[in-house]
Amino acid sequence: MPDKIENNYDANSLRALKGLEPVREHPGMYIGPTDEKGLHCLVREVIDNSIDEALAGYCDTVEVVITEDGSCSIKDNGRGIPTGINSDTGISGVELALTNLNAGGKFGGGNKAGGYKISSGLHGVGVSCVNALSDTLTAEVCQNGHRYRQVYHCGIPEEPLKIVDDTTETGTTIIFHPDATILETTEFNYDTLKTLLRELSYLNKGLKLTLTDLRGEKERHDEFCYEGGVVHFIEDINKGKNVLFEKPVYFEDSEGDDKFLEVAIQYNDSYVEQIFPFSNNIRQPDGGTHLDGFKAALTKVINDAGRRLNILKESEKLSGDDVREGITAVISVKIADAQYESQTKAKLCSTYVRGFVQKAVVDKFGTYLEEHPAETKELIMRCITAQRAREAARLAREETHRKGVLESTKLPGKLADCSDKRAELCEIYIVEGDSAGGTAKQGRDRRFQAILPLRGKILNVEKVRINRVLENEEIKAMITAFGCGIQENFDESKLRYDRIIIMTDADVDGSHIRILLLTFFYRYMRPLVENGHVYAAQPPLYKVSGKGVPDTYLYDDKALEEFRNTYNGKFELQRYKGLGEMDKEQLWETTMDPARRTLVRMKVEDAVEADRLFSLLMGEQPELRRQFIEENAKLVEELDI
What we know:
Blueprint: H1 21-25, H2 28-31, H3 36-55, E1 61-66, E2 72-76, H4 93-99, H5 126-132, E3 134-143, E4 146-153, E5 156-157, E6 162-166, E7 171-178, H6 190-203, E8 208-213, E9 220-224, H7 230-237, E10 249-255, E11 259-267, E12 274-279, E13 282-283, H8 289-308, H9 320-324, E14 327-335, H10 351-371, H11 373-403, E15 427-432, H12 434-443, E16 449-454, H13 466-469, H14 473-482, E17 499-503, H15 508-524, H16 526-530, E18 534-537, E19 542-546, E20 549-554, H17 557-566, E21 571-575, H18 584-592, E22 599-601, H19 607-618, H20 622-632
Parallel strand pairs: 1-8, 12-14, 15-16, 15-17, 17-18
Antiparallel strand pairs: 1-2, 2-7, 3-4, 3-7, 4-5, 4-6, 8-9, 10-11, 11-14, 12-13, 18-22, 19-20, 19-21
Helix pairs in contact: 3-5, 8-10, 8-11, 12-18
């Protein structure tokens, strides 16, 4: 037991936090981490208020601007936060919403006039938390023929809400500058906000969302408005793929005014299942009752169609895996009082949603299959082919299990393992070629660094089923070395290394090998990428040496140009064509020493865009791949070919 602390503990020792003090003192309880993710959560909270106005039918435009001083402005053309005096508190509705953690139109389920029956929101912390975590926030509301304004500092108003102008506009504008004394980062990421707005525009058809960045010399601007909503979502995901239905199958359904469903479905010729479930504009990566209802209905209607068309016998049945191979689908429900498994809202738990979704899919998709017999027959034949291939894959799995590929503790012979067995301290380098692998084995720190050399390029898993994947020797070596299994057998707790580092040559072939490896990880071990276990090493391109200058390693052409501009003397320049050209000391010093190396963590910021790019770059349509390269070539200053 620890020693007692001698002090007075009485009623005066207790402290009641007032107003927004709890948010400022314990921000993690309200927005999660105070890093970049937490910063952008604040933007999302304000945008969600505007989305609520759109869901209620009063707003069709939301404008987001990152200003020159690093503030973020969110403007909508909805009704505006109420400006009148609240009878319970004696302050304006604007001040109440911005200073009270439990105030807003989302409470009461829409039973009171003006409230929201259905509302979005990632954490539901509201604009008051944004105010609390901003060193300055300005609220402008256009309403009743006037423009109202109120300014806050660290959540405290300068003065009461006042009229500053007359206007015929309506809506709310929130401009906030994040508080650097609380948040770890205050710099907004344009691409993160772009991804958010694009997804929200897919899920709210007809809603116009714009993003403008006024920082820097050149303004950036994007505009999103999809009249097709989730249909456009599916078309973008499947761009570059051969699809079964020429247009995505779309249907919607509703019950009363507090349950609404949209579904879009399209099959492609890949072997990947992609289903994106959303509730109230939030994606549930762990699924939930809406996904369960969709899967059950899909299996039923396809089996029913197969028997109706005499393709399946009464005793034959396609499994859920069979009918979902190659599917791309979006399920978006908007419901009142949604229940989730946790604060992150990663899984929907509202039980009534399963039956609501299942009935709608059976009715609507079942009707589509009845009215399109040709497409239905082709779909069922694809499902039967998937069933046979799945059986072959099962036999392949059993064979690999028997040989110990997926479960054996016997590690591959080419692996140079590390001596420490604590996974959280260990890392494995996936190295291109035996020559570089040999150098890496000599130069590594044997205590915590393992080396697995690969011979040549691994199989492109985007184009084959799992039975072919498990026949590839290099892939089998990685599966065995990592120890965590693949696909439905993946178990992150069995991962033998916390960091998996791809170390390839700094050339086109090296980049190709890296994308092949990333495609395999993303398709078969996706949590490795999502949870931050996968990295890319950054070997140098050049070594310069000369009189009066120590040996210096340069990692790109821009660094070389800067060196030329700052060093006036003569120097020798060595261009590394591959990792094998470095000796063990150089490889350790530049690429493997934790104190000096540079690693790039592979992250999935936008799962939809990541999937589209993997399919485009590794798929069957070279003309789209060429188009992508041509459109993005201007982003590369110099490319070695």
